Every structure is written in structure tokens, then in C-alpha cells.
């Protein structure tokens, strides 16, 4: 299925509204999901819609919930999302933190008990568009464990992604990565599409390499390799371990092993820096632009056309998909159509 993004956004928004979500939330949630598809992050895109609707029906995802402030200072904001949509509550957190960063030079906020935050780079980019540098990290409340420590065969932590965004003279520069070799959602997407995973993503329950995505969701479960793979995975696992502690510990949520009663939700940590209050905005932008240009000017080895920096591939995909539309495989499109028929929503 090939569909233009405005039509897909409208379709997804109508699905959520038919499932009981107010338009004021359905529209930004749809835009966030389709925005992931537009940038090539299909695992965080509209493939998530049926799961969100199941959570709404089960009461584990709550529409219309305000962001609850638990503690606040001029540079700090501790909040509870109340199981609200992650894309709605994270946007609210960022909106409240940016003025604090401008005033204080630095601001930090946490979010606990949130629905799926989606593509983490979206929030780092949102801050950077306001002229603020930021770091965003999330965990799965200690419930979803899918990464084993190097040498182990039992999962102990989740993918624990981080995103860093900085303003530059040419717009935001954003790094968005999992501390595992790949996001768990990309494995699920491979399973949905009926495709094998590339070598180097997965180990089965005995710790042997496999390309079968089903091992991540069968019993006993296989594991994702940490960032860095089998040789350098201790680095990725170390990052995941520390961010799990920081996010779970500072937010008031959980790190593994969570209590049996803990819900599968997201917690988040956001730190923002205002360059103007440090060495000045012009110095920051000058350093960023000079380094980026210096990196791009690197002589390429044979077979390489150009040096890329973080975000280049996403931006190229965005331009292409804005023009040509978003291609959705049958494993993603069919459940949306079935959901639409069930909810009485017209299919574009």
C-alpha cells in the first residue's frame, strides 16, 4: 500500500477518535506516528496503532489525562503521565522545560507512567528547534527485558534508547539510538512482515546467533545483542545499564527487576541546556557548524559517495516519502483496515 502522509495522518486520527480519543489528542498522536514512517522509522510508526487501541480498551493507556506535576523548582520538573499518550505527555513536558532552560541555563525533567514515547529523536529535535540542546532517555519501567549482559543468555535490561539534539546554523542535528543493537520494535516489525532479521541482531535462548525474529517473543525468549554486537557489546550494555538506573531512579518509576504489579509503561529523563547562558549561542552554533563541515569534508574511501552525519538518512527518506508517499507492507496495512471496519471508519 502506497499512501500520502496527509491521508494516512487523517486515517489514523479517525481511528483513534472512533476508539474514544478526543481529536485534540488523536491528531498529534497520529502526526507523531506518521512522522516516524516519513523518516524511515517504520517500527515506531503506524504499525503501533492496533497495539495502542488494544491498550485503550484494556485501560492500560488512558486518553484525556493531564500531566501531573509532582515536584517543581525553577530548573526542575518531576511529572506523572498517568498512563496518558507518550507523544502527548512528552510534548507537554518539553513545552514546560524549555522556558526553564532559557531562564536558568539548564533544566531537567522526568516523566513516569507514560504510554509509548515513540521515536525518541522527535523530542530532542523539538527542543533543538527552540534553540536548546537536549538529551532524552527512556526505559520500560523495568518490565520489558530483552537485552542480556555480554556472556549471558537471560535478558536483564530493555533497549533503553537515548536521543541527543543540538541546534546548528542549518537546523537541528539529532542522534537517536538504542543502547541495544537495534530497537525491539524493529524485530517485531520483521516478524509482522514475515522477514528474517539481519545477522548480528539476535541470540536464541541458548545464546546462539539467529535471524528468526520469533525467538524474541517465544518462550523461552531470545535476546537482543547490546549496541556494539558480540565484540563491543559491553559498551552498549554499560550505557543501557546506567540509563536504566538514571531514568528509573530519578523518575520514580522502576528499573529491572520491577515488582510484579508494575505496569509496562515508559519513564523518561530530559535534560536541556541553553547555549546562550553558557559560552553564548554564536559560539555554540559556530562550533557545531565548523565541526559538521569538517566531518563532511573527510576524504571518502572507494565506493563511498559522501560522508553522512546523524539524521542525513532520515531527512533523505523524509523528502522522498513526502513526495512519493509511504509504502506500507500488508502486515502493517491489513490490521489497520481490519480495525477500521471494526470501528466503522472509512478506509482511504
Structural features, described:
The chain is of the alpha+beta class and 348 residues long. It folds into two domains: 1-64 and 311-348, Malate/L-lactate/L-sulpholactate dehydrogenase, four-helix barrel (Hypothetical Oxidoreductase Yiak, Chain: A, domain 1); 67-181 and 225-297, Malate/L-lactate/L-sulpholactate dehydrogenase, NADPH binding domain (Ribosomal Protein S8, Chain: A, domain 1, 2-Layer Sandwich). It is 41% helix and 16% strand. The protein is built from ten helices and twelve strands. It has helices at residues 5-18, 23-38, 49-58, 86-104, 121-129, 184-193, 229-251, 281-296, 312-324, 330-343, and strands spanning 2-3, 68-73, 76-80, 106-114, 133-139, 162-166, 173-177, 202-203, 209-210, 223-224, 266-273, 326-327. It has a seven-stranded mixed beta sheet with strand order 2-3-4-11-5-6-7, sandwiched between helices. α1 (5-18) packs antiparallel against α2. The longest helix is centred in the last third of the chain and has 23 residues, at 229-251. The radius of gyration is 20 Å and the shape is globular. The model has no long low-confidence stretch (mean pLDDT 96).
